[in-house]
């Protein structure tokens, strides 16, 4: 019965009409006076009739004066775009006076704003919590870190996945939320005595995989495996990443499901460059001598090959080794899962204990430690680098252990946070149940609750108790209902009293908006207390809370979710650089390039820096792995550090970061089109337009196209008039980034050799370009200079992105005054990201509905 009620309640459309639908009287007089004569004079000859150019008609039947119709509104917007960019009328056609264009644009803009205000004020957006918000809210409300990876992916709209218009609800999701609520409460609420913990230590030894079993208890006789490695006293030394080299234990079951700590006593050692060169020289000399014996006449060529390949070992950055790296894999039932990767930065004399916490169920389990330092296989080394005498970082494992389940107290905080201690509990069980339920509902619904709401949920408790359930089990019934209620799963903000009138948000609604904006979770105790006191409507108090939230740990969710979606970091790894063409790209690098962009964003936020550093900066925020990749010396450790950009290194600003450069490439080669489009949309807020259908990529019969540079390919493509319209705006921005290959490495030439190798006669990169306004730019430096000249566009774009994310909806023309006010505020306050956030969270749209 509970399930049926919930499905019926939750299958609510994302947008509810308050009065049967908004009303907007068309401005027929303005249309007749301004638009109709303009169309007749400049548009009808091409854009009316059965075969209009561009399949775009402007006659009243195809383009109605109805701005509440999404299809018509989109067409009117396109008219504004082509008039504003002077794309229409065509250059050879009769041209309108600027005043005529302005009159049409102003009329369309005015009607669009009217429609937006009417639609927005006459609807209630039930904005569902997205996956990350749900996980964080459950963690802060119940104290359980619930895995939401099984939930459907949240669709994005306006660039972000917290957009209420896109966050729909399906019957399948209702079932998933119900099952999740039951699992969460089963983990959170406990009965009985504290489970007896176990602490199992494993001392692996090298040898056959199934040779050693260790009796852990009467039910567990685990297999402990040291792999086919080298034993040095108590240390297992791992030299390779092969499957039979891993160390671990398997075929055991923990006695109680819960959180367990995995500790690993590890060390490492890394050889220096001289050892690599010495070993390589031995192998290369051996190859040279054998070739001379077989063909003495080719000795001079063999000598050249020896010297060329030896130079690789002397100079390539891949042999500037960092510490060995380990991957920790957990096996539960049939499913392996990577828990973590870490650098074994300790030494044999000063080893380190690396600690990780994970959840074990009572399924058959295992833990394995794998070598994860990847040295690329390239032509110079692939034939001997896997030999045992080839110097490479070595991972050393002494022991590892599993301890748990771990509790800071019993009952655990997840239990006492819900079923707290109260005098009522000892004298009036039902009264206490009502008290606990009311407090939980208040936190879950993010507002005060009415007695009738509590009474409705208490009926579930009463029924369960009468049915013989224990107190804890009976409490789970109404608590489950709370966790699948629309008041928990959605952020509901009722509309104003009349169409076109904005309603001030309540203090609790402001608390929720602010908390989900900057923390992707429910309001904490401080925000709730201020909301109860009616203090959050005061902007001065809200500014204090903004600063507090930005200084606390919850702001990591803002960094991860806003930066991750604004910069498309979630796309990293979806189409990675081909390993045979870009051997330097590996899993550690992929993880690092995402963290680099997040750390860069965090630094600009925390240090209150000028937001123009996003375009160009004199610093980078990198770890040792990225330092090797970028060619920046002196950086040690896997932690991210703010480092000045050395002279001659072309980094600084997000367009130089490998995360952006890889996601805007095609896996096998660069894509100036993708890169230019990304710059236009992400940094300047300019929509380059959609590609025309059935145009194709490049004419396939062009002679020599297989050896043409990317620039040459696009020049051929732009010869088509229908393609040039967009590509003339896009391509110059992408050409300026051509010195970065598809993996984000700097290059001077485009390689056409075997596996993308650069030959002596291969063409040098031409990173020059001419913008659509005629401005010439050269390389990334020229691009950054051009972008800095477009400061207002960039700041408007950034302000629009932050406002979109904060409001949880797409912006319209009615929001442009707020965006421009935000930019003006930034300019008065050092152009900082923090000043923008402070403005957004205190502006009228943020505190009204």
UniProtKB/TrEMBL annotation:
Pfam families linked: PSCyt3, PSD2, PSD3, PSD4, PSD5
Coiled-coil features, chain-numbered ranges: none
Cited InterPro entries: Cyt_c-like_dom, DUF1585, DUF1587, DUF1588, DUF1592, DUF1595
Domain of life (superkingdom): Bacteria
Domain Cytochrome c residue range list: 30-112
Entry keywords, A to Z: Heme, Iron, Metal-binding
Protein name: DUF1592 domain-containing protein
